[in-house]
Amino acid sequence: MATIAIYSLKGGVGKTSLAVNLAHAAARCRRRTLLWDLDPQAASSWLLSGDAPAAEPAEAVFARDIAPDRLIRTTAISGLDLLPADASLRGLDGFFSALGKRKRLLRLLERLTGDYDRIILDCPPGLTETSEQVARAATLIVAPVIPSPLARRAFDDVVRHFAGAPGRHAPILPVFSMVDRRRALHLSTIAAEPDWPIIPMASAVEQMAARHLPVAAFAPASPAAHAFAAIWTGIERRLADAP
Known about the structure:
Distance between the termini: 14 Å
Helix content: 40-55%
Largest sheet: 8 strands, mixed
Shape: globular
Number of strands: 8
CATH class: Alpha Beta
Strand content: 15-25%
Low-confidence stretches: none
Order of helices and strands: EHEHHEEHHEHEHEHEHHHH
Number of domains: 1
Radius of gyration: 17 Å
CATH topology: Rossmann fold
CATH architecture: 3-Layer(aba) Sandwich
Strand order of the largest sheet: 3-4-2-5-1-6-7-8
Structural class: alpha/beta
């Protein structure tokens, strides 16, 4: 099993759309896939399952030692399950800090090893105790970055933070997100990092909210669908080459 965390320092950078579309790409590759929504805004949960009520609050998995599989639900996409989020996760950082268990998330993920091939984490933004747990638990961190100097600076801050943190942390794969090739600033920024994957600014991505589906499910020939598929292919190659 591999755990891919979709993480950014701030919101509004296409994190959730990236998480949902990569989870869909993994399921299409016949990987038993779970999308675990850790963001209290619960956008991934809403996109894949609407506002269906859960049997327990999402925080119960962490606070009351309820097995994660008790909250997992199937989605309309074959091979893709969802562990939904809700507002109870707003207190997750405080819980992790009070509990004092630095590998709590890792231990929960280990319980799912026999059930899934790939777990995608839609992480809350910010450098928090939750992000520290994610960095220790993930196999790979995928970080969407809007192509601007300020966003690139924020990404560099994240890299330095994790590099200086004690213990092991997952490698980070940056991805340019919401790229508009009509903007000179975007063009100059992506030209400086030609090896970073690119997700274009696209109406198909915006339509996900209306359709409650990943892009490839309703616009498989779109540039955005091809971009998400290419990123997932690169991730699978990276996982296969890992020692």
